[in-house]
Every structure is written in structure tokens, then in C-alpha cells.
Amino acid sequence: MVKNRADGSEPQARLLDALRVPAGAVDLSKYDTRATTGFEGTKDDGKVALEQLGAEVSDWQERLFAEGRKGGDRSVLLVLQGMDTSGKGGVIRHGAGLMDPQGLRITSFKAPTPAEKRRGFLWRIRQALPGPGMIGIFDRSHYEDVLIARVRNLVAPPVWNRRYEQINEFEAELAASGITLLKCFLHISPEEQKERLAARLDDGTKHWKYNPGDIDERRHWPAYAEAYEAALEQCNGPAAPWFVIPSDRKWYRNWAVTTLLLETLRDLDPQWPAADFDVQAEKARLATT
Amino acid sequence: MVKNRADGSEPQARLLDALRVPAGAVDLSKYDTRATTGFEGTKDDGKVALEQLGAEVSDWQERLFAEGRKGGDRSVLLVLQGMDTSGKGGVIRHGAGLMDPQGLRITSFKAPTPAEKRRGFLWRIRQALPGPGMIGIFDRSHYEDVLIARVRNLVAPPVWNRRYEQINEFEAELAASGITLLKCFLHISPEEQKERLAARLDDGTKHWKYNPGDIDERRHWPAYAEAYEAALEQCNGPAAPWFVIPSDRKWYRNWAVTTLLLETLRDLDPQWPAADFDVQAEKARLATT
Lengths: 289, 289
Prior knowledge:
Chains A, B: This is Polyphosphate kinase-2-related domain-containing protein. The structure is a homodimer of 289-residue chains. Chain A is an alpha/beta fold and 289 residues long.
């Protein structure tokens, strides 16, 4: 793979290709959580490179938004999954934060309420889908229903087992309706999580982010890894691909997800809508006012 | 009033005081749309000064968000009103864009649908209110129901006439429920609007923003000015104040609204929530994992 330099001096390989999870069995232990795939440079270079994506990603975002306003039905949905402290919020703050917030629809999914549960696990997901021209971002998603639900036995095995196929049908439906899915698993090591949890405990301004339940979840790390592998393996169709983002380095994680989003927008290639009025006639009308 | 220098070298007067619409009759012709109240410096200085607000406004936003996560019920609602091209979208892009998009809830109100109309003009507004810890932003609002509704006779005069009091009751209810309102009228001159509409017509990447109906609305400028004056006069209680933002200079408008938001957050003074768990015990538990 061609390496991307921070100064953009070499042609860019597509990160979409480099981080795409290949079809077939998934073994997360073979993925290096400290890798900087597709990027050559230091942490500081990475931060600069992220900022430099801002102008282009904003431009594409506005084109997509404009298309949506003028009858287009396309949108993008970035799904962020990962263990506690893997940085879903950080990606949104630093990556999505480069874009115009008017074009973003961000939804953070917590444990479902009793009313949500009664409606089936996909109901609340459908409510949160991005409209035409929007970039939707899910901080957690319907995948929790085959992750924590499976690991912590929140439903019986036949129930979560059926969900992989239900998710595939659902995501195929989304793709057919014009939603381009970009599913990112923010992959950290258990050692990195331990450091991040310790840092939260050491910092009074971060105590609000800490939940004693995080340690309980942490004790189930191997079971979560297995559940993630199953999801990445079983729900990885061409229209709803998974990407594994090495996330022990926060700066790389932010750069990588934003780059994937940028490449996705480039592929969609939205164009400025043509005028649906007579430009000269409108200029003449304006002149008389 | 003390002027704020771009380099922050002098003590800041509160822009909240300087731009606040005083109680009593409102005459918009007395407000200079090109003023740079509270700011001393050039356009470039203004852009730099706006960027420099980013860190502090983000910090306050995160504190408010944290408070909301831990049981606090406070939030902020920025209401943006103004004639076409006055820059409601620009304020969101350049001002709100400095903040973490996770803490923002942005709603753009278009003409109400028939279903929305049947539910009363405040129904859809209530659906869009910010939750605890959030900063809500309305691009247009319930004020359209005493602006375009009044100017274009969309409802009978007794109907829109009743709405001022209904709005006052509604906004008092919001304030009592923990929502701090910040209502900004982006004030431009008709000459500036003409230039901006002409610029849209001259730029193919902006045609999607242009609507021939904008010129029809423009012909009603004096009636809109009157309707704005009525709204600013009649719905300007201490808990729901109006601010007039001189908006012919885009850089000043963005700086001013962001500064008002910053001062509002400073007044709320949200603090990092204290740990609701035993920090030492959690450190010990974490060490065993």
C-alpha cells in the first residue's frame, strides 16, 4: 500500500480499501490496535493532517446537503462501535466537528427503554436515520443488540442469533433507499482501555464519564471480542461494509475515520444542483426591487 | 462601553448588556446594521477573535453537557431569526461549528406541514427543545407564526394577535423548566440583502440556496420590519430576552452571537459533576482487571 504523507505529496491509496474487513472469518487478535495504516508521520503530523481534511470534507458535505435539498435522496450513515473508552465521542468531536453541524444528525444510543424494547430492536434505529443530504452518525447502534445483548444474556440465544440476518435485511433496505453505510469498529487493546479508565479516575473533570459498570463490562472482554467477530463476520455485505480502525492512538483513529468519510463522499461525488429557475430573469426581477 | 480588543488585552464589557433590546417600543430603523458594537478591530481581527472563542465555549459546553448527564436539567436555546440571507446558517456553521456537535441540537423550521398546523403552532417547537445539558439552536422558530403568518395573512389577525401572549407563556414555561433562552434577530439592511441575493444568483454553487419566492418576501420588507418590531416589543420578558445583532458584516455577526452564547454559558457556570462513586475503590477494582 502506498503511504500517505502528512503533506499530501504522494498519491493517496484508498483507506477504504486498506481498512475494509475482508469477507470471511474475522480474528481480531490479528489486527494491530496500534497500527497507523495508510499514514506516515508523527502524532503532530496526524493532527495537522486531520485539520487539513476539514475544507474538503466540508465542501463535499455541503454538496450532499444541497443535493438533498433539491430532491436527492442520498445520505451517509457513519456507525461507530467499540468498547468503552475506544473513542466514539472523540471521533465525533474531532472528526465530525470539522463539518457544518447543520448537516449532521448525531444519535447516541443508550440502553433501550421498556417502550423501545416493545417495538423491536430496530424501531429506534429507524427513527434516527439521516434524512436526504445528511450525514448521520450513530454512537453505538443496532449492533449493541448482538453485542451486550449476547454477552450479558439480555435476550435468549435464539433471539440474538436471528438478529444477524435481520440486521442484514435492514441494512440492505437502507442501502437501497440511498443511505451509504460506513461501519467503523474502533479497536483498542485491553491494556489501552485500562490506561484510559485509570486516566478518567485520576481526572476530576472526567469523573462524569466514568461508570463503575465499565469495569464489569471489561471483565467480559474475551466474550465481547467474540461477539464483535461474529458481527463483523456475519453482517459485512458489500452494501454495508465494516472497517476496523486501529484506535490505541487517538490521533490516528480520528484521522482514519474522517478520511474514510471523506473518501465515501468523494465516491458519492455530489454535484451542485442546477438552478431550477431562470437566472437572468431573477437577476432582472431583483434589480427592480 | 468598554471595547473588546481582538487580543483580549482589555476587560470585556458584557455583550449581553450591549445588544439587549431594552423594554418598550422598538424602532429597528434606529439600529445600525453595520455596527460592530463591543468589538474593536478589522474583519481579519474579528475572524481570529471568533476562532479564539472556540476553546472556552467548548469547555463550557462540555461542562453543561456533563451536568445534564448527571441529573442537571439546564440547557440553552439559541433562537435565530432574520430576513433571508441574514446569515442564520452562517452563524451555525462558523459559531456553533466551534463546539462539539454531540452537544448541539439544531432544528431548521420550514413552512409547517398540514399535520403540524393541526397541532397548534407550538407543538413542533416543543418536539425540538434541547434536552438537559444540550445547546439547542433554532434556525427560524415559533416567531415565524407572528412574522410571515402576519405579513402574508396566513391566519386571521385575531389568531396571530393572540400568539404574542401564547409565546410569552410558552417561553416562561421553558425558562421555568431550566432552558435559558437567547433570542437573536440578525438585522440586515435591504441593500445588503440585495447584494447577497445578487451574489447567490452570480454563483452556480449557491443557486440551490436561491428561491424566487425570496424576492416576493423582499417586497414586503416594511411589513416584516413592523412585524419584527412587534415581536421584539411584545415578547421580550426578562426570562426570554431579545438581542439585535448588526448583521451586515458577516464576521461581526458570527463573533457577536458566539460571544453572547459564551457569556450565557459563563453566567450558567456549570461545574464538573462530582464522582457519584468511590474513586479509590474504583482504582483498586481497575487494578485487579
